[in-house]
Structure formats: C-alpha cells, structure tokens
Amino acid sequence: MTLDAILAVLLAVAGGAIRVGTPFLFVSLGECLTEKAGRINLGLEGVLVFSAMAGFGGAYLSGSPWLGVLAAAASGALLALLHGLVCSLKRVNDIAMGIALMMLGAGLAFYLGKPLIQPQAPQIPSIPLGAWSSSPNVQAALAINALFPIGVLLALLMGWAFMNTRWGLIVRMVGDSSDAAKALGTSVNGVRIVATAVGGAIAGLGGASLSLFYPGSWNEGLSSGQGLIAVALVIFARWSPVRCMGAALLFGGAGALGPALQSVGVSGYYHLFNAVPYALTLAILIWTCSPSRSLKGAPMELGVSQ
C-alpha cells in the first residue's frame, strides 16, 4: 500500500470513527447514567431500534430532522420509563425485564415502521470539517454528524456533574448504597426511574443518528446489536462518561475499518474486517470477566441481588 493510500485509510477511519461511533456514544452515555443509579437496562437495543423508527417517522411526517430527533428522544424516554417503572416493583429482575423490553421495542418498531421502509426523510445536517481540502474524498470523510458535538458536550457535562453537583451525588449515592440514600430521605425508586428515563432519551438520540444521518434510512436491521454492545462499552469505560466517548470512537473506528480499506481497493477479507467491532466486544468482555477488573468503578448496587 502506498503512503497516499495509507493516509487515505487513516483519514477515512478517523471520519468513520465519528460517523459510526456517534450512536455508540449516545447509547453508552444513556446506559452509563442508568447504571450509575444502580439499574441495568439491557433493553437499550429495543430502545435504539424504536427511537430510530420514531425519529425517521417524525422527520418524514414533519419535514424537519430536528423534530425527528425530538421524537426519537421522547420515544426512547417512554420505553425506558416503562423499564424503570416495572423494575421498581418488588421481585422484578432488571435483566429479565431488559430482555423483554428489547423484544417489545424491536417488535413495535418493525410493526409500526413498515410504511417507512421506502420513503426518504430529511437528514440531520453535517458539519463540513473538511472544507479546507479540495479533495471530495476528504470532504466526505470529514462531514461530521451535527449530533456528535452535542454528544461530546453531554459526556463532558455528565462527567463534571457526577463529581461536582448535588444531582450527581444523589445518583451516585443511590447507585452505591440504597440504604444510605433511604437514610437521608432520598426516594431510591424515584431517582432510578428518572435516571432510567433520561438515559433512554439520551439513547434515543443515538437512534436518530442511525436513521437520520448514517446510514440515514429506516430498515429492520438498522442497529446491528449496537444497543447491546453499548453495555460492554460502559463496563470497558469503567462507568465514566468521558471514557465512554473514547470507547465509542474506538468501536466506531473498528466499524469503519472495512469500508475504509475497500475505498482504496483492498477488497479481500471485507467481511472479516466488518466483524472487527463484534470481535472487539468479545475481547473486552473476556478481558473484563475478572472480578477485580469488572467491579472496579462499578456502582455497588449493581452487584446486589434483586
């Protein structure tokens, strides 16, 4: 491979890391908030698919991509709120409810989204970071999803808020010790329900990014398991919103590697390169299976039998 080809691949991977990683960023931030409050939401895959459908439908019907983004966030919050309310009942297991929510969200999206498979909806605008170059390939690679800067700011804001605000302290306290939170008069179920719903709204922005930017259409195989991968991302990031951003870009770059190599004529092993994100997920799960690693930084209530 020539030097120009290598530079082209690196540039394509960098741009692809942002494009592909943006949904990972929002879903992992949503799950990070949920788990910080001591609740697990494995149903984010269903939330992601349903919000992608709702966002596409909202943009198609209204003619505005930003109204579609709001619809995606609202639908994600609604499904996650259901998860939070049901899990607040006695003898309801977070994991089992999450699986049920995943199936519910996917089923509703496939049923309600059938009329949306063919139409085209207005797309989220891109930020042309490659305008300095005269190369169309560079301009295309550096056309950044307008939601990505919002995700970066949200990650930084969440990281700061968890450490420096009363709200962040309450969320962390509920996630680390429900008994201590109750002793101080805090409604543990109330905090967890709100955190789960807000986490679903954040994940819904990831769904909007899928259907309204990249790949920018609605179909039943849109998410490709990104909602489940986000759970592994949160563990990998040690429940830190800022590290979730880095992990999302890492997975985004892994997902962009195959198309980047294909763009410079490396077509062999294309499907193998496309499997890199899933192999990376498996490697992370194996690496974090040690209790000393997986529990480092974890909210203590996640280990409490419920």
Structure summarized in a few sentences:
With 306 residues, the chain is an all-alpha fold. It has helices at 3-36, 44-62, 65-87, 94-112, 136-141, 147-164, 166-176, 178-183, 188-212, 226-236, 241-263, 270-274, 276-287, 291-294; strands at 126-128, 143-145.
Give a structural overview.
By secondary structure, the chain is mostly helical. It has a single domain (3-303), classed as ABC transporter involved in vitamin B12 uptake, BtuC (Orthogonal Bundle). The protein has helices spanning 3-36, 44-62, 65-87, 94-112, 136-141, 147-164, 166-176, 178-183, 188-212, 226-236, 241-263, 270-274, 276-287, 291-294; strands at 126-128, 143-145. A two-stranded antiparallel sheet has the order 1-2. The protein is globular, with a radius of gyration of 19 Å. 50% of the residues are buried. The model has no long low-confidence stretch (mean pLDDT 87).
Could you list some keywords that capture this structure?
mainly alpha; 2 strands; ABC transporter involved in vitamin B12 uptake, BtuC; 306 residues
